[in-house]
Design a protein that fits this description.
With 488 residues, the protein is an alpha/beta fold. It folds into two domains: 230 residues, 3-Layer(bba) Sandwich (FAD/NAD(P)-binding domain); 152 residues, FAD/NAD(P)-binding domain (3-Layer(bba) Sandwich). The strands form five sheets. Strands 1, 2, 3, 4, 5, 6, 17 and 18 form an eight-stranded mixed β-sheet that branches. The chain has a five-stranded parallel β-sheet with strand order 7-16-8-9-12, with no helix packed on it. The longest helix is centred in the C-terminal third of the chain and has 21 residues. The protein starts with a strand and ends with a strand. Bound molecules: flavin-adenine dinucleotide (FAD). Flavin-adenine dinucleotide binds next to helix 1.
Amino acid sequence: MTDFLDYQVVVIGSGFGGQAAAINLKKQGIQDFVILERRDFAGGTWLQNRYPGAAVDVQSPLYSLSSMPYQWTQMFVTQPELAEYTQAVFNTFNLHPHVKLNQEVVDAQWHEQSQRWHITIKGCPSITARFIINATGPLSMPVIPNFPGKDNFTGTSFHTNNWPDNISLKDKKVAIIGSGASAAQVIPAIVDDVASLAVFQRSAHWIIPRPDIKFPKWAQQLLGIKWVYGLLRHAIYWGLETRVIGFKYSKRVLNLFAGAPARRQLNKQITDPELRQQLTPDFTIGCKRIILSNTYYPAMSRNHVSLFTQDNGIKQITPTGIETADGTSLALDVIIYSTGYDATDGLISYPVTGQNGQQLRHVWSDYPRAYLGTCVPDFPNYFIVTGPNTGIGHTSAIFVIEAQMHYIMQAINYVIEHNQSSIQPTKTAETRYTDMVHKEMERTVWHTGGCNSWYKSASGKVIAMFPGFSFVFKRMCKRFKLSDHNIQ
Ligand SMILES: Cc1cc2nc3c(=O)[nH]c(=O)nc-3n(C[C@H](O)[C@H](O)[C@H](O)COP(=O)(O)OP(=O)(O)OC[C@H]3O[C@@H](n4cnc5c(N)ncnc54)[C@H](O)[C@@H]3O)c2cc1C
């Protein structure tokens, strides 16, 4: 017995990963669970990322939970609608009673004797749990590089992930550092407001047109019919899945379906040859996340927008702005950091101690690895949603999250139904799986495309991506292999 509040399952994080876990636990008849969320609101990515222009880049009927269709207003919806959708998920599945806010998990330790996880929460009493489902998100730890003088800036500065409510950029002199997916959404959304905009680009990204459409009322009504929604979802899914052929098997296909449209758009929308050159990536398309936008290049062509490439990058941040490598001083009111996330080495931000005092960060010191991207030998009853090599560049992350749920629920059910206390993958199974992942990765554009992306960990290995078709991953998750596990 323990003096701590004890749960059957503790879910850490309330984004789509935590929501999918909660929905599936309820479906299994498990009600004794809690969702711990460090923030003062539940919902994850789409409640946190409130920057102007924030929108999904996977078609909404696919970027949604399979058990929660929705009458979307457009194909690629913007953040406010995703936030509404998230609230609708919480309400439909009655998840709020399970959520505890302002609960940042800072430590988790497996206690062999009690066969329980002891979970330390910042400023709150510790709790125990039989199972942990970690759903802390692959892109929830924003990173700001340590630019010299960063803390001396006296104007306003923030990461896109922490966009201040009610800030006005009207007639402000603004710099944005970074030119990836978030920057490509922010820049067109603020360009009309600002007095001037300096864009600091480490490397140019490939950008393809965004095939967005608004759904008229009648189409939204059709989306309310289950089989119509299902059909559209399938069509989008299989359409996107063909992209893997390009990413992994054929550079010609990649060029035909992505490279050519990207080049066409660049050539059409950027007429200045020097700017076009600066905006042309020097790696194979697909190596970094492909950006979808029709408005980025027109925004970059505006007279009050200036582009700073690595040749003339940031020398230092000064109290009044930015000094560039060639000695130019930019006076600024606002600096926006669009500098991304720690998606690989910082995958789990708190210390996790498994059997025999093993530390997860030591096990992962070479690079993060997990059986089915979900569990690790010596860490019993610990499941990682969107763990190592579960990212997907060509389709919806929610598809992968739901695939993982097939595996997690089968593992948990097996332990409960057979009156066992713990489950973990064997070392052999985990090694076999990880070796397979990295061997398959060698063929992909993420490995061979000549770029250094956030998909790679410090080891140089691609950690963020699954190297293949998402239905293959789902099939592996569905086929629960007892012999791959140690059950106690
Ligand atoms: C700006 C942006 C755009 C994106 N666009 C797309 C897209 O178009 N298509 C796509 O497929 N994917 C996209 N993604 C990826 C996105 O992360 C996934 O689609 C999905 O939302 C992940 O859900 P999650 O629950 O795993 O993580 P999150 O939604 O990040 O939720 C994690 C939650 O865990 C909480 N948490 C973290 N650490 C702790 C802790 N120690 N204790 C307690 N709580 C904790 C966080 O506060 C957060 O609420 C995007 C991500 C970002 C940031």
